[in-house]
Write a structure and sequence with these properties.
CATH class of the largest domain: Alpha Beta
CATH topology of the largest domain: Isopropylmalate Dehydrogenase
Strand content: 15-25%
Order of helices and strands: EHEHEEHEHHEEHHEHEHEHEEH
Radius of gyration: 20 Å
Number of strands: 12
Mean pLDDT: 94
Length: about 325
């Protein structure tokens, strides 16, 4: 049986992504790794890392085994050679082209999953291209409703809102929005993670989950009625729970995933305890997409010292999800 084919994008050319990809290629991961980026960028990254990597033009065929240190390449040329640590807006179209190939290739069946290295959103916007992130790009490309989840070996956290100013969050917490997000999370925990009856802990928006209305009414007016309606549909939902106690060990045994109301409500907990093992994945897409949980680390770019642990974890999770999908009954895929 041929190996799963993982499309891996290098992200920002001037960041640590290309070097992380080289480090990933050196591992014995049992998957065909197809780097979607500039071949010469990878050669320079390998030299900076002191790594002997064999680059092979990808012909789309399967392989029964992969030797560590080999990497297939879907050559996507840069507009300008990279200067480590200094993103160049001229390369913004290159970055977007790599994402488009990964997404379209997954939909077309050329790849089994997409794994993405970090990119520099500001550089793309500096090029005059409105861009808010990988998650939003893939959602628009696939015309899908999506949810951002970060997962470590011990904790899964999904987000009701993502890259919003904190002042804009309360207005975004609507019954319709929560219903959409929870339905996606529930369905994906069943299909992607194989949980027959997922238990989801939902955090409150306010301190102490509103303290019965004394610290805010969003829980009483929106969150609680929404959870009650979804429980009536058969979903196993806990909460709303106060965020300051939801992650203590006694609480964690009660749930399989957490839904946080905003980006910084729960992610600091996850990253503080498992930064090198946490993976960003996009739920709701018609394909599997995982990513690192960190940025481009421009201060480390070019040094060859960046830690590849999160990208390796992302590739391993993508492979695990691909294998689970292939072995799942047809009606659960």
């Amino acid at each position: 049986m041929p190996l799963a084919r993982l499309a891996v994008t290098a992200g920002e050319p001037a960041g640590i992504g290309p070097e992380l990809l080289i480090r990933l290629a050196a591992t014995p991961l049992a998957a065909t790794l197809v780097a979607i980026t500039d071949r010469h960028l990878l050669q320079r990254a390998a030299a900076r890392c002191g790594a002997n990597i064999v680059l092979i033009d990808d012909d789309g065929t399967g392989e029964a085994a992969r030797r560590p240190g080999t990497l297939r390449v879907r050559h996507t040329p840069l507009a300008a050679d990279e200067m480590p640590g200094q993103p160049d807006p001229r390369n913004a179209p290159h970055v977007l082209a790599t994402l488009a190939e990964a997404a379209d290739g997954c939909v077309a069946g050329r790849y089994d999953a997409a794994v993405t290295a970090p990119l520099q959103k500001s550089s793309i916007n500096d090029a005059g291209i409105r861009f808010s992130g990988h998650t939003e790009f893939f959602a628009e490309r696939a015309r899908a409703d999506v949810v951002m989840m970060l997962a470590s070996p011990d904790l899964r956290v999904a987000l009701a809102t993502t890259h919003l100013p904190l002042a804009a969050v309360p207005a975004a917490i609507t019954s319709a929005a929560l219903t959409r997000v929870l339905r996606i999370v529930y369905a994906e925990l069943r299909t992607k993670f194989g949980l027959a009856d997922p238990r989801i802990a939902v955090l409150g928006l306010n301190p102490h989950a509103g303290e019965g209305g004394y610290l805010g009414r969003e829980e009483l007016d929106t969150i609680i009625p929404t959870l009650e309606a979804l429980r009536a549909e058969g979903m196993h939902l806990l909460g709303p729970l106060p965020a300051d106690t939801a992650f203590v060990p006694a609480q964690r045994t009660r749930y399989d995933a957490v839904l946080a109301m905003y980006h910084d409500q729960a992610l600091p907990v996850l990253k503080s305890e498992a930064f090198d093992r946490t993976v960003n994945l996009t739920l709701g897409l018609p394909f599997i997409r995982t990513s690192v949980d960190h940025g481009t680390a421009l201060d480390l770019a070019g040094s060859g010292r960046a830690d590849p642990a999160s990208l390796i974890a992302a590739a391993k999770l993508a492979l695990e999800l691909v294998q689970r999908k292939k072995h799942a009954p047809e009606n659960e895929r």
